[in-house]
Amino acid sequence: MNQPASAYFIEERHDPNETHTLAVLVQNEPGVLARVIGLFSGRGYNIESLTVSETEAQKHLSRITIVTTGTPMVIAQIKNQLDRMIPVYQVVDMTQTRRSIERELAMVKVRGQGEHRVEALRLADAFRARVIDATTESFVFEITGNTDKINQFIDLMRPLGLVEVSRTGVAAIGRGPEGM
Amino acid sequence: MTDKSHDPNQMTGAAMIVRALIDHGVTDIFGYPGGAVLPIYDEIFQQSEVQHILVRHEQGAGHAAEGYARSTGKPGVALVTSGPGATNMVTPLTDALMDSIPLVCISGQVPTHLIGNDAFQECDTVGITRPCTKHNWLVRDVNDLAKVLHEAFYVATSGRPGPVLVDVPKDVQFATGTYHPPRKSDVHRSYAPRVKGDATQIRKAVSLLAGAKRPVIYSGGGVINSGPEATRLLRELVEVTGFPITSTLMGLGAYPASGKNWLGMLGMHGTYEANMTMHDCDVMLCVGARFDDRITGRVDAFSPGSKKIHIDIDPSSINKNIRVDVPIIGDCGNILGDILQVFKAEAKKPDIKNWWQQIAQWRARNSLYYKKSSDVILPQHAIQSLFEATRGKDTYITTEVGQHQMWAAQFYGFEEPHRWMTSGGLGTMGYGLPAAVGVQVAHPDSLVIDIAGDASVQMTMQEMSTAVQYELPIKIFILNNQYMGMVRQWQQLLHGNRLSHSYSEALPDFVKLAEAYGAVGLQVHKPGDLDGAIKEMISVKRPVLFDCRVAALENCFPMIPSGKAHNEMLLPEQANDEATAKAFAGGKALV
After folding, report:
1. Among A50, B36, B121, B590, which one has the highest count of C-beta atoms within 10 angstroms of its own C-beta?
2. ipTM for this prediction
């Protein structure tokens, strides 16, 4: 059908999707994470990655870092919807408003012997991953970097006996002397 | 240790709740008792400053509080118990969220040590109501209660108003702690709604308005929420600019229906002239409305040639459905004042004579035309008769949801704000009767009429008992066509006339039903008897169920058909079977 067939129908926008990292400063109180997540599920927004931790205990401030995708109009909606929640202090679009650094930590368990084991160790060295646990047949690597780097490392480990991955999700901070 | 026994601010949680209500000027609340709110009811019993209205179902309490709020501009308050009491509040809370109505709900909860234990009448009230409130709180410590209650009132009434809920476990109601009166620090520092509009944006808006050749003002419920000053300024702006004005369902009454610049309501069942003016305008000033899908019709064909100015207190309303050129975030009263000031200082009334001539041609299409009959009462005629009979009286109108609601919006002329209570966003059948109860509590000497349908009114009929108990002389004006009329209309237009479950079989005898409640029942079949019966209804000083038997198959026009733009409205005289079938072709799939 070429034409929307209902007065209530809001046509799909064909703008391309963008990926944005949002830093959300919230009052650390019961239910605050449920509110944020509920907003995303209730309104059909995507969460690619979510990282939450208290950052200033005395002020009861937590920082939620969300990586989300959507058209520019949807991204703007997400920011506005977050910003109007009562316990939200500030929403900063790390992708749009400033040059930012993003990091993620992953722990990667690899099991193997012989040449595979040597290769895994060699690659880990190239990626500056650290060995944080070892047995005669396995390693756990700790790797820090942006999402792409970690994805790449995991892909390389797959044929070498990848067993398990645990990732923290993205944390982001702006470059330069200014705070959020 | 100081002796706290004589400190007047030492009190139980239950006493704090009543004290906070008094401190916030609350004189009436709506509620239903139960195990988890007994301490609060005990406090209510021992005082006389807050009147409690006992409803028959918690949903009724919520809608009554909404009606109270919308007719007064003050927050409505509801008090319910845990579990089913709280879950029955979900509909009114959602309704109030959609329509931006300030509502404070206090719910009881099982004692803190039982939370999470699947206790009797336990539910996760804050979890369930999180998406249907502006904010909610579970109070675990009696010493937090005063702060939370004060913040709840502030959040409900400030910024874009909305419903809030405070969940209070029973042990917190019994516990003794320190109360304090409202103070600034009770509010989250993260909550600071913006009131004043950006000066640069206001200048841009004025220059667009001053240069307009084909302008329109499109106002909404935000103007009414902002308060009497916003209404006054809106009227002044219309006067100063000479622009035509239309309004959403929620905004009716902000500009008087008898005003010379009034185009009628816009949107799906709006007038032809309002929708055509919106479609062809070159500058649109949207004040306190949100480009809802029932307003815009097909969004890619919505007012394609216009520059759009959007005033809204909620930034998330900006660019949500329609991209606008000049967004101004803030309180619409405040911003209208600034716009007027700049306009008066720097601009003069644009010459839009040609535009008004064009509008006059659209008006001449008489899009609200219907054919009167001497045998059967047309629903439109019933509303017009009701309007004529109540014109100049101190009248408040509520509605249920469906065809009767749209006819009420089309044919009842509202002259003032706060006189029109209808469920716009959520579309809650069963809203009108309890809302009328709330309105009548707030305005005991006024004429309060619920324009109802035979299906909707049965959803909350039990509140007739409340009206009788408190001697609230509400008038329930039922347009009885023995159908869920709007459902049937859609089935006729979009589903091959297969009237699946839209016929009201086994309707009660509304006259006998009224009498069973101890109210007055009236019934009218003939157009000739209508005016007399309405007069009788108005003169009775008791609750009335008015069974107005109307033409069964009448449909609501004009209408923007499926997938069409504002300039492709279906007018009543075109609504024959063939044209209808054509206009709605292919509409079924995506409704």
Report:
1. B36
2. 0.88
Which two structure tokens, joined as six digits, stand for B52? 């409690």
Q: Which residue has the tokens 């703008």?
A: A15
d(CA B491, CA B287): 35
Give the closest residue to B472 by CA, choosing from B513, B497, B420, B437: B437
Report DSSP state, residue B70: H
How many Å apart are CA B154 and CA B24, to the nearest integer?
Answer: 10
Burial class of B412 by CB neighbour count within 10 A (0 to 12, 13 to 18, 19+) = buried
Catalytic status, residue B59: no
pLDDT greater than 50 at residue B368: yes
Q: How many Cβ atoms sit within 10 Å of the Cβ of residue A179?
A: 6
pLDDT in tens, B520-538: 999 999 999 999 999 999 9
Distance, CA of B136 to CA of B51 (rounded, Å): 24
Domains of chain A, first to last: 15-97 (3.30.70.260), 101-174 (3.30.70.1150)
Angle at B65 between CA B60 and CA B69, to 5 degrees: 150
- Inter-chain touch A86–B155, beta carbons under 8 Å: yes
Q: Residue B563: list chain A partners with CB under 8 A.
A: 3-7, 9
Nearest Cα to Cα of residue B344 among B236, B423, B418, B198: B236
Q: Are A166 and A106 in contact (CB under 8 A)?
A: yes
At B563 the pLDDT is 73
Query: From CA B518, how far away is CA B511, in angstroms rounded?
Result: 11
Hey, which residues 531-560 in chain B have their CB within 8 Å of chain A? 560
What is the C-alpha to C-alpha distance for residues B426 and B91, in angstroms, rounded to an integer? 9
Place of tokens 């007064």: B72
Residues sharing a CB contact under 8 Å with residue B367, sequence separation 6 or more, in sequence order: B271, B272, B273, B557, B558, B569, B571, B572
Crossing angle for the helix pair B58-72 and B432-442, to the nearest 10 degrees: 50
Specify whether the CB–CB gap between B288 and B197 falls below 8 A.
no
Q: How far apart are CA B67 and CA B573, in angstroms?
A: 36
Q: Is the Cβ–Cβ distance between B259 and B238 less than 8 Å? A: yes
Partner B, chain A 12-51, Cβ-Cβ below 8 Å: 26-27, 30-31, 34-35, 38, 42
Which residue has 């058909």 as its token pair? B561
* CA-wise closest residue to B134 among B109, B108, B167, B160: B160
The contacts of residue B357 (CB under 8 Å, 6+ apart) are none
Q: Establish whether B58 is a catalytic residue.
A: yes
Are the beta carbons of B316 and A84 separated by less than 8 Å? Answer: yes
State whether B591 and A1 contact (CB < 8 Å): no
Integer Cα distance of B260 and A32 in angstroms: 50
- Per-residue pLDDT reduced to its tens digit, B380-405: 999 999 999 999 999 999 999 999 99
- What is the least distance, in Å, from the CA of B315 to any CA of chain A? 6
pLDDT tens per residue across span A37-78 = 999 999 999 999 999 999 999 999 999 999 999 999 999 999
Residues of B in contact with A81 (CB under 8 A): 316
Q: Is A8 on the interface with B (CB under 8 A)?
A: yes
> CB burial class (10 A; 0-12, 13-18, 19+) of residue B588?
middle
A39: closest chain B residue by CA = B131
Pairwise CA distance, residues B193 & A52, whole Å: 26
CA closest to B329 among chain A residues: A80
By C-alpha distance, which of A157, A145, A4, A43 is closest to B297? A4
Dist CA B536 CA B522 (whole Å): 9
- B11, B98, B109, B170: the catalytic one is B170
Residue A118: how many other CB atoms lie within 10 Å: 12
Among residues B120, B349, B526, B582, the one annotated as catalytic is B120
Let me know: does B273 contact B263? Beta carbons within 8 Å. yes
**In this structure, are residues A21 and A172 in contact, taking their beta carbons and an 8 Å threshold?**
yes
The span from the CA of B509 to the CA of A160, in Å, is 79
